[in-house]
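Lay summary. Proteins are chains of building blocks that fold into shapes, and those shapes determine what they do. In this project we predict the shape from the chain. Here is one chain we studied, written as its sequence of building blocks.
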Amino acid sequence: MISFLRHSIGWIMGFFHSRQDLIFENLALRQQLLALNAKRPRHRLSTVHKLFWIALRSVWSGWKQPLVLVTPRTVVAWHRASFRLYWRRLSRARRVGGRKPVSPEVQALIFRMAGENPTWGAPRIHGELLKLGFDVSEPTVSRWLRRAPRTPHPIQRWLTFLRNHREAIAGMDFFTVPTLTFGVLYCFFVIAHGRRKILRCNVTRNPSAPWIVQQMREAWPYAQAHRFLLLDHDSKFGDEVVSSAKDMGSQPLRTAVRSPWQNGVAERWVGSCRRDLLDHVIVLNERHLKRLMAEYVRYYHEDRTHLGLAKDTPERRRVASGAALQSRISSFPRLGGLHHRYTLAA
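And here is the predicted shape, written in a compact code that computers can read:
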């Protein structure tokens, strides 16, 4: 009875439908009958049936009414899957026109040139790329140059300046050392940036301008002073020290306030001196500290390898000749046994 009423209501509603709706409804019902009559396990729908419902959904708004085999949500999922498949194949297709894609190697090279040469623009970088054999246009270089990292930090630019002029730069500074009987002593030193060589090192209780000037004269007794001399804003480096440096042919340059990295070579030497020696001994008096500093300067010049000098020493330590694995290696204590030097036994 219920089935008869459903078919009767459907016939009455279909009587008032337009002819186009009847045609689409008949097509939908016939397609479902074909799918049901197909001899397949579990009545799985083929690709043709899925495409039919996708096309019918696009042209007929009443496609849900005669749908019996699957839910409308399934048809919508088929439609979305077809769009994904279409765009996936379209994206994988080979493009005929447009610019040639820039390879990741060329992109990395553009970023490298921009980082190593902060003053270069797109024309200079494009010229270098052409000389290297890369077929790339200048607008492309300019476009990728806008994505490159920014210019180096001011600290890096300052380090670049120091590397380019290190042979003509020297630095001087003080550091304090506590003692057992005399309180705090002041250790003064002058270091050359070229080979990290200590030109002068001395200890005093009361540093004064005349004493500093005398140490500067002993740092360059017979040679011309370095062109640039770095010093900080310490009150001990007054006008008398600055004028004496100018008389010796050097141009004194003061670092910025609270910027020890601007005299980084001197600060690094102070750290090495503390870690290698002063943190492991108890200084008794001024004479004891002078002897320790003299021994450390000798060890620093002749034995200790320096990372900034490509693992060499300021005095250019000679590389041992011979087969190291087949020779006996001797060790020699330095700084009272805190460090050792190793050589091949004769």
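What the prediction tells us: The chain is about 45% helix and 15% strand.
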